[in-house]
Amino acid sequence: MLSGCSNDGDSSRKSVSLTFDKDAYKTKTKTVSTADGEKKVTYRLWEAITYVTKPVDEKYQSLNVMVPVKIGDKEIDASGAPILLDNAIAGYMSSSVTGGSGGGGGAAPSGAPGGGGGMPGGAAPSGGAAAMPSGATAGGAPSGGTQPGAGMTGGGQMVSNGDLALAAGCVIVQPGARGRDNEKNGKYYGKAPAVIVDLKAAVRYIRYNKGRIPGNTDWIVSSGTSAGGAMSALLGASGDSPLYDTQLKEIGAADASDAIFASADWCPITDLDHADMAYEWMYGGAELSGKTVDQTVSKALRSQFAEYQASLNLKGENGFGTLTARNYDAYLLKTYLEPAATKYLKALSDTKRTAYLKEQSWITWSGGKATFEFDDFVTHVGRSKSVPAFDAFNTSAAENIEFGNETTNARHFTLYSLRHATGKSGARLDGDLPEKITLMNPMHFIGQKNAARSKNWWIRVGTSDTATSLTVVGNLAASLKNLGDNVNALMYWDGGHGANEDPDDFIKWIAQITGYGK
Domains of the chain: which residue ranges? Predict the structure, then answer.
């Protein structure tokens, strides 16, 4: 048995055991709206279990476990079911299952599966915003957007992935995690890479308790949205990497694997060290509040994107060839955007389709297919962030704060912004940052062909989601397909940040890749 003491700075210290107590549950019921109608689910709930022996703060380093025992009148044995690890991280903020968080992005209320993540509202910080309560309706949702990790059912009710998976007989684990806002006595304790270290520790806890926690520990499926989607992708890409061993040992993580079976990522705010250049490649000429951004800065970043994209040497889908800054617009059109628009328009009635096309006259509808120019599409969606979008010159962006350290709240994490802000052409990033940047980027581990990565991927983003460049999703999907992984990636036409328009298909996908329930 692994055990230790709390390390959160309190004078009272208690022993923490990593052995899951099979009897410490409460029995709950809830009704879930699914594509097959409403289902009453009876489940067992284990609340706020600390998943490391030396927690920095148990409020965040804890998880909930939910196991269905009855669906309708049918008894359920979930001992061999897939396990959905449903994080509620948003904006790289802390996430807690103990009844709240330190500033946003909290998990669903205790006992309510699948909070799903943060929902942007107004001028949301890049990377996400405060969480929307589980079960809330979409009455105030931005156009095209839904509760991240959630989907709409008939009648407009919001249903989370966790709810749907529970109603399908899956085991649900909600992990809390430290975040960029965690601070105590003037010291920050949740900066990068704390969030991914905590999620890995949660996976290790699940695997360590194989046979005690119901469910198949070889079928762990991670899900997350926005910054949570980025962490889900990173969790999938970096399985069992030794680069995290020191940090995991420091918090007393279980001696077990942190590899997962599948990774589901909605609008992942990832590849942060290249996100500014990707954003300018896509949105550099688009207006922000009726004005174009600083074109000198934008063009410099666009030039950097060309170099970065070339360095990846990625092949596009369906024999497209090598993806470059010159042809990426054509690739997005052919692979994602026009198919998304076509699917959307086909689903409309003739009257509604005619009205939509009249309003969006830049789209050509012919032979049951939508076609358009990339520049017209970018004008349609506009841009939502200034320049640079992620490593702000005044270090005000969420990502600047994510890359702070114990004593500094926010720091530059790209040479371009650092040198521009300081006026020093020879300025260098703080010595600890290169490693931390690597530990936060799934593209590094994919590039290294990490053998223990997930081999199954569900990737989604809305076409009107301007929280990051669509090339981020494009590169993530292409890099994984280049390695031969099973990748199910698409874009939702006119979908906003956090959109999840096919949640029932996601649940079916879990059944398909695992073979469970057949």
Answer: 3-269+497-514, 272-322+384-433, 336-382
